[in-house]
Amino acid sequence: QDNSFEQFIINYCNEKLQQIFIELTLKEEQEEYIREGIEWTHIEYFNNAVICDLIENNQTGILAMLDEECLRPGTVTDDTFLEKLNQVCATHQHFESRMSKCSRFLNDTSLPHSCFRIQHYAGKVMYQVEGFVDKNNDLLYRDLSQAMWKANHSLIKALFPEGNPAKINLKRPPTAGSQFKASVATLMKNLQTKNPNYIRCIKPNDKKAAHIFNEALVCHQIRYLGLLENVRVRRAGYAFRQPYEPCLERYKMLCKQTWPHWRGPARAGVEVLFNELGIPEEEFSFGRSKIFIRNPRTLFKLEDLRKQRLEDLATLIEKIYRGWKCRTRFLLMKKCQVVIASWYRRYS
């Protein structure tokens, strides 16, 4: 119920993961239509980059201000940190606090004076500011490390290598927030070089019991996982897309003009194929390098036709082989009969 610094950085990581999900699915999906020259009506969706900027901006971000409070001389408390947030983030649309200079949340009794609230992608979360400064510092006093390093026990000495006088670094160690921010940045950079696949798990209830479906809980998860925007983009767009060459190679057996070999460009072959099958024009579009199919039922129809055609081809191959085998056996028997008859006539 009381969210502190730990939950804050966890939610920050969730925001960054949601951001990369948006960029790699919704944004990339719509950009592909534009890139392929497909007629497309842009679908509005919420981009949580503004929330990530509120947390990680190098000048006005919450983590940057927290580090600044930890490093500045003088009396530093959680209250001074909250006061700084109230000054810098007072007008931000996703930041809420009982600030003195802004009357937006002055009478909000659900928001204590020692807390601030962030409107995350998944919903509003209130953070208790107490402990933010100490947990962000996460410092071990240098003289304590040196004392542990001088211990006779080898394990204790190995656990505190920073206490070695030969390796003393007078530079202030990085804060917990800055370390976590750097780790998240490394993770995002790594994910952007991959081709990720997403599995969205939805809990039907909080009791971990069978045959219980909590509609409110499921709807909440669908909203904060971004599934609504994803479904809207998918339904407004095309469910399947594939380059012309592999598409023609897979379905060319369904058309006499493209089977067994098509001599022209792959796009022309796909056009001939779809016209021959009588697929409605509104069900597909031709991009610069790919064929786009709107409805999954069209794809299922193609797969069913291909499956039936494969069975027909297998039957044809089997029929020709059996005919060849029987004819070969017949010709061999006929040849043998001629030989036997000729020898018999010669003998008689």
TrEMBL record:
Provide a GO CC annotation, any one: brush border
The cross-references to PROSITE patterns, in alphabetical order and at most eight, read: MYOSIN_MOTOR
Q: Which GO terms describe its biological process?
A: actin filament organization; actin filament-based movement; endocytosis
Q: Which domain of life is it from?
A: Eukaryota
Q: Which residues form the Myosin motor domain?
A: 1-307
Where in this protein does the record put region Actin-binding?
184-206
What are the record keywords, sorted? Actin-binding, ATP-binding, Motor protein, Myosin, Nucleotide-binding
**A single MF term (Gene Ontology):** microfilament motor activity
* Record family assignment: Belongs to the TRAFAC class myosin-kinesin ATPase superfamily. Myosin family.
Q: What is this protein called?
A: MYO1B protein
This chain's source organism reads: Ploceus nigricollis
Q: What is the lineage of its organism?
A: Eukaryota, Metazoa, Chordata, Craniata, Vertebrata
